[in-house]
């Protein structure tokens, strides 16, 4: 199961065109909002690749009774938190954002995105066909597009 997850994750990263990050290049000419929006959209795109998404459905349904499934979910969450911390540290160094506590801000941001992605999938698969319309889906991308 672990090997399948790693394979599907790498394939999804490749299909979503996610490569190792050069923060200087990533930040060039962008606002903090644009950087965060782009990074989140990339992560959402990676996780919404059909094969990985199908695998996640199985893993999520098994995580309360299968330790390996729970470990895979926890490891993915930890990867997301670590990547967000690295991003926030780099944004601080490049003076795009300032944090009183970058670690706590990164955890809060990562878990919010993680929760919103779960919520989006719950909405997508939790409605009957008649109830399911694009208008009743919130979606992470839709939330990120709304500017105040």
Write the layout of secondary structure elements.
Elements: H1 2-15, H2 23-27, H3 32-47, H4 50-62, H5 67-93, H6 102-126, H7 140-145
Helix pairs in contact: 4-5, 5-6
Main features:
single chain; 148 residues; mainly alpha
Structure description:
- The chain is mostly helical.
- It contains 7 helices and no strands.
- Helix 5 (about 65-95) crosses helix 6.
- The chain is globular, with a radius of gyration of 16 Å.
- The model has no long low-confidence stretch (mean pLDDT about 85).
User: If you compute it from the alpha carbons, what radius of gyration comes out, rounded to the nearest whole angstrom?
Assistant: 16 Å
Overall helicity: over 70%
Number of DSSP helices?
Answer: 7
Unreliable stretches (pLDDT < 50, length at least 5) are none
- Structure classification: mainly alpha
Label the overall shape. Answer: globular
Largest sheet: none
Percent of residues in beta strands: under 5%
